[in-house]
Amino acid sequence: MTAPVLNRVIPGPGPACKSNFTMFFYLAPSLTNPPEPTDKTVVITSLPEQKVFTRYFGGFAREADYVENAEVLGKALIRDSRDFDASFFYTAGYDSPFKILFRHNEVWYVAKTDAGEI
Fold it and tell me: Name one Pfam family in it (predicted).
């Protein structure tokens, strides 16, 4: 299993609207020629280098846990006048489903490129 497994979450515009999820799996940079996907919905892409604001939490994370932690992080960034892209966030899971204790989960907001040094 690769780690972290990322999900980009674009929240739906209202309480009854579904969010958009895109899952990313890490491929080592040394893997210069990965196999071509056989499923048309799977693509190989690279994320740009970016700075992210992160909030960590433990346990077996559910969608509601990620949303709650993203809201806490977003409010803290606004309070501290941090410049970030609030239109989406990432979830990051680092553990195998078989790991029971000391699980590591994160939510990320991407810093805007003109935010300067953090």
Answer: SOUL
